[in-house]
Design brief:
Blueprint (H helix, E strand, L loop, with lengths): L1 E3 L5 E4 H31 L7 H29 L8 H28 L1 H11 L19 H8 L8 H27 L7 H34 L5 H31 L1 H4 L8 H29 L33 H14 L6
Helix pairs in contact: 1-2, 1-10, 2-3, 3-6, 3-7, 6-7, 7-8, 8-10
Length: 362
């Protein structure tokens, strides 16, 4: 049953408090891990500036901080009887972390799309963008090691170039935020005396978001399979490791996104957090269990899993001052059994190896 607050207000049931507290603790822990990994990556390669990996960690961490604030606000708003909670404020706090979570995995999808279509675009990109590697466009540098520092100075400190697929991600997220504001305004207006049904507006948004998560899971599955098949043709230990990371992440994302979306479409469970006080005592236990499953499976598990498989640090870049001085020894006698290796041959070999061993898709 609903417990009474200090001033006779109806607070969350014990089951609801337990579910919200556990979810808040889990999301807080995931946010701490995300920002700690971000700090480690940044301290390891400070000269790279903002890479896609760093931005992904920021989005995951910010999303989980948003969920943490939402669950804590739910406990306080229900017990204190905030009038604005059911008039749009609760809806905004519920949706903002969902949008950040969606943006993080859309960014991951754009990276996988880049890798899958990289073979078709390499010739054009190598000719036109040799030293202008996009900040969010590729997961690694394809330049010759002798020119890596000059290209880095060209790219990162001075300007930020966003790839076309990342521009599409930014556009989708911007439109999602605009639609969220529009739905929140309609919910606020619907609380007055007018034909607008606030609960119907919230359900419409919930259905749209659930379908979007289903589509995102399908896209991750498709490109995960495609990337898995491409990487299976590369015979190397690194490719084998990254191949199974891609497969496991795609499988977890599909299972979690599909489960949470179906649960949301069938039960409308996320909206019940906004109306705990209107639930019958017999429904409190089942609603609390469904709410916990929805947020834990749909957000906490994918976020924690992707952070776990991204726990390995990227290779440290060596600055010019740390490079060994070029040798001044001239060799006058060479072994005839060793074939001559001219610079062009070495460059072609290095290029083929770099194309075979792509950057980590995770």
């Amino acid at each position: 049953m609903l417990s009474e607050g200090a001033a006779g207000r109806r607070c969350l049931p014990t089951q609801g408090v337990a579910a919200e507290a556990v979810l808040a603790a889990v999301d807080g822990a995931v946010a701490v891990v995300a920002f700690l990994q971000l700090l480690r990556i940044h301290l390891r390669n400070q000269q790279l500036g903002w890479t896609r990996q760093k931005i992904f960690h920021i989005m995951i961490g910010s999303s989980n901080i948003g969920y943490l604030a939402y669950f804590i606000s739910t406990l306080v708003a229900t017990c204190e009887g905030w009038q604005c909670w059911s008039h749009g404020c609760g809806f905004v706090l519920m949706v903002c972390p969902q949008i950040l979570f969606l943006a993080a995995f859309l960014l991951l999808v754009s990276f996988w799309v880049d890798l899958c279509h990289q073979a078709n675009d390499e010739e054009e990109e190598d000719d036109e963008h040799g030293c202008n590697e996009a900040l969010l466009e590729k997961g690694k540098h394809k330049q010759n090691p002798l020119h890596v520092d000059s290209c880095r100075r060209c790219c990162f400190p001075r300007s930020v170039h966003v790839g076309s697929r990342q521009k599409f991600v930014i556009l989708v997220i911007a439109l999602t935020f605009i639609s969220m504001i529009a739905f929140a305004v309609l919910i606020w207006i619907g609380r007055g005396k007018n034909p607008i049904d606030s609960s119907l507006v919230a359900r419409v948004y919930l259905y749209i978001f659930s379908v979007a998560m289903l589509l995102l899971g399908g896209v991750l599955a498709c490109y995960g399979v495609l990337l898995f098949s491409k990487m299976s043709n590369v015979r190397s230990e690194m490719a084998s490791t990254e191949m199974w990371k891609v497969a496991s992440l795609a499988a977890v994302a599909v299972i979690c996104f599909t489960s949470s979306a179906v649960l949301s479409l069938v039960t409308n469970i996320p909206l019940q957090v906004l109306s705990y006080c209107h639930l019958a005592p017999s429904d409190c236990l089942s609603s609390s269990a469904f709410i916990f499953l929805y947020y834990f499976i749909g957000s906490s598990v994918p976020s924690g899993f992707v952070l776990w498989i991204m726990r390995e640090m990227p290779p440290r870049l060596v600055a010019d001052s740390d490079r060994p001085a070029p040798s001044t020894i001239v060799t006058f006698i060479r072994d005839r059994s060793t074939p001559a290796q001219n610079p062009q041959w070495r460059t072609s070999v290095a290029s083929s190896q770099n194309k075979g061993l792509k950057a980590s898709p995770i």
